[in-house]
Amino acid sequence: MTHQPAPQRVALHTRLKPGKEAEYESVHAVIPPELDTALREAGVRTWRIWRNGLDLFHVVEVDDYAAMRAALRDHPANVPWQARMAGLLAVEDDYSGGDTGIGLVWELPAKE
């Protein structure tokens, strides 16, 4: 059996436009199947999003975050999704930068 390396865990912060909270949650109730497939093929293992008011906090477990972003930048399943998100988010993600997520400050170590 081949051992798969541990995924990268990347934290992200995004912010909603005021009044878009319910719409954002509604849109995320079920994402398009082709986007689900694209995310998994790009190495995403899990993606969780929490909301506090307008602030969204994401934790992504992915094989390679930079490679995932490159794979999704022009993916036909992601382009319309990002266009939809642009109407809900205060700052659109245009996939142009070297986004590396939020830096980890501290983590309670697992006991062995």
TrEMBL record:
<protein>
    <submittedName>
        <fullName>L-rhamnose mutarotase</fullName>
    </submittedName>
</protein>
<dbReference type="Pfam" id="PF05336">
    <property type="entry name" value="rhaM"/>
</dbReference>
<dbReference type="GO" id="GO:0019301">
    <property type="term" value="P:rhamnose catabolic process"/>
</dbReference>
<dbReference type="InterPro" id="IPR011008">
    <property type="entry name" value="Dimeric_a/b-barrel"/>
</dbReference>
<dbReference type="GO" id="GO:0016857">
    <property type="term" value="F:racemase and epimerase activity, acting on carbohydrates and derivatives"/>
</dbReference>
<dbReference type="InterPro" id="IPR008000">
    <property type="entry name" value="Rham/fucose_mutarotase"/>
</dbReference>
